[in-house]
Design goal:
Length: 171
């Protein structure tokens, strides 16, 4: 499916991922809140957004060649420079910058910790890209990792700054 002229691999795998992710989120939600004391509504929102993000990124894609992990590792300076140059290159990378913002904002609001959102923003894109390197039709991309991580860290920092300015409400 194309969204804003960018291919988004939505298939029956996505639907299955959304259903399973929603079920797992509902199963984990109450025990997680009871154990951590995090805000109940934002914790559920975080889990649902996380499972939705994974469902949207783990479906098969259109690439015809076999995936490899080496493609996304910036082993040469050119690869890293090229990935950084791609960040502002097109709409797909702009959407990648925004992709993790909702889940990161929800995590910071649930936990009231900027660091948890920032850590998620740095770790989740790595997990996604490594996994995509093993999914037929998907490729691993350093530019995607950088865009996702950049957008997520900025979202965490901005949400944390807003939280520091507002009084704490009971969860």
């Amino acid at each position: 499916m194309y969204l804003f002229q960018v291919y988004v691999p939505i298939s029956w795998w996505t639907g299955l991922g959304l259903l399973l992710g929603g079920a797992v989120s509902l199963l984990l939600w109450r025990p997680l809140v009871a154990r951590t004391g995090w805000h109940a509504g934002w914790t559920l929102t975080s889990l649902l957004l996380l499972s939705s993000t994974l469902a949207l990124t783990f479906g098969p894609g259109l690439q015809r060649r076999p995936p490899t992990l080496l493609e996304c590792l910036p082993l040469r300076p050119y690869t890293l420079r090229h990935a950084i140059a791609q960040l502002a290159g097109d709409l797909e990378n702009s959407l990648n910058i925004l992709m993790l913002a909702p889940v990161v904002v929800a995590v910071v609001l649930a936990t009231r910790r900027t660091s948890y959102g920032a850590l998620l923003a740095l770790a989740l894109p790595g997990l996604i890209e490594i996994t995509q390197s093993q999914i037929p039709g998907r490729v691993c991309s350093t530019a995607d990792y950088l865009a996702n991580a950049l957008g997520g860290v900025v979202a965490a920092v901005l949400t944390g700054a807003v939280l520091r300015r507002r009084p704490v409400s009971p969860g």
